[in-house]
Amino acid sequence: MRKFFNARILLFVMMLFMLALAACASDKTGGDDQGNSNSGITETDNNEGTNDNSAEKKVIGFSQVGAESEFRTANTESVRSGLEAAGYEVNFSDAQQKQENQLKAIRSFIAQDVDAIVLAPVVETGFETVLQEAKDAEIPVFLIDRAVDVEADDLWVSFLGSDFVEEGRKAARWTLEEFEGEKDVKIVELQGTVGSAPAIDRKAGFEEILGDDSNFEIIDSQSGNFTRSEGKEVMEAFLKSNGDEIDLLFAHNDDMAIGAIQAIKEYGLDPGTDIKVIGMDAVRGAFEAMIDGDMNVTIECNPLFGPQLADLIDAYFAGEEIENRVVVEEGMFEMHEAEELLPTREY
Ligand code: AHR
Fold first, then answer.
1. Average pLDDT across the chain, whole number
2. Distance CA 213, CA 19 (A)
3. E strand or H helix at 163, and its extent?
4. Distance 311 CA to ligand 1 centre (A)
5. Exposed, middle or buried, 3 (CB in 10 Å: 0-12/13-18/19+)?
6. Contact residues for 266 (Cβ-Cβ < 8 A; gap 6+)
7. Given this model, what pLDDT does residue 12 score?
8. Most buried of the four, 42, 75, 84, 203, by CB within 10 Å?
């Protein structure tokens, strides 16, 4: 009887021990206390292969424009990997080029009390209220790639991205050289997403340089939303109404230029010769088009600033003073150098 009693105590102690073990294991694997299941387009990276200091890891909510172009895909990858390599946990949200998705994502990041928000805004306007909400919650916001147009300039910590106006100027300066001595040059313009900073600024920079020159005329200008398919569609419409008149296509990105090149070929003209083509971003697809003789020049818009962003955020958390505006350095590449440079291109 006494033996039986001891065995029961032993069994009871073992069960307690096993229960305690199971509780420990579920603590380590079960918990996402960030509440990351807010929408189908948000996901959290678990930083495989980086310093996995989960207890101390800061969480960064990253609201990206979408996946509309080669630039964007490269930018998403660079920002995610740059932040993860620096030891941050990234909570990623793809806005699919819709501002309403970004507003939802930012509010969800605020509700999750993330440590910082990285925002690449789809358009310039309409962010005032949500940025104020982030500020009230004491969550620092880092703007990347595109600017916002808000009255107060203390709603974000820093803006890291290209100088789009300068990119537009570069395209115009190239045009002046390429058509030097020619009169009555007819230009069609494929604009980026309506209301976005690159569409507004690139147009402004281009017109600033060419505006007063009566030898150049923009005969048609419409948005192709930064995508290949819409670039092709809009170019088909340009060709339908202006046909053989067009001398130059100024496309606000390479993807639209590549779509338009297809339309020009289908129309029976020779892109790069009959119609000169300017693209922007300097993605690998543009270099391939230049090697084929279809595109004349691409103005660089460099998406690979993830590590630079991570340094900026590190500095902020270390209490250092942060520049309010950091401009990414960029170049310009022409058809004659495309073959030599393609192997060196990283995106
Ligand atoms: O904001 C940068 C622009 O956005 C790129 O030039 C374009 O390709 C992208 O979609």
1. 89
2. 81
3. none
4. 23
5. exposed
6. 236
7. 59
8. 75
Q: Ligand 1 — pocket residues by CB below 6 A?
A: 68-69, 71-72, 145-146, 198, 226, 253, 255, 280-281, 301
**SS3 of 86, please?**
coil
What the block records as the tokens of 35 is 């509440």
**How many angstroms separate the CA atoms of 156 and 149, rounded?**
12
Q: Is the pLDDT higher at 47 or at 154?
A: 154
3-class SS of residue 60: strand
| Residue 102 burial class via C-beta count within 10 angstroms: exposed 0-12, middle 13-18, buried 19 and up | buried
- Helix segments in 184-277, DSSP class H: 197-210, 228-242, 254-267
53-97 pLDDT, tens per residue?
456 899 999 999 999 999 999 999 999 999 999 999 999 999 999
Distance 99 CA to ligand 1 centre (A): 15
**3-state secondary structure labels for all residues of 122-142:** CCCCCCHHHHHHHHHCCCCEE
* DSSP 8-state symbol, 190: E
User: The tokens of 18 are what?
Assistant: 């096993």
CA of residue 226 to ligand 1 center, whole Å: 7
* Phi and psi, residue 327, nearest 5°: -100, 135
Integer Cα distance of 86 and 306 in angstroms? 10
Distance 332 CA to ligand 1 centre (A): 16
Site to substitute for ligand 1 among 65, 284, 301, most atoms within 8 A of C-beta: 301
Instruction: Determine the atom of ligand 1 nearest the C-alpha atom of 120.
Output: 1
Ligand 1 atom nearest 66 alpha carbon: 10
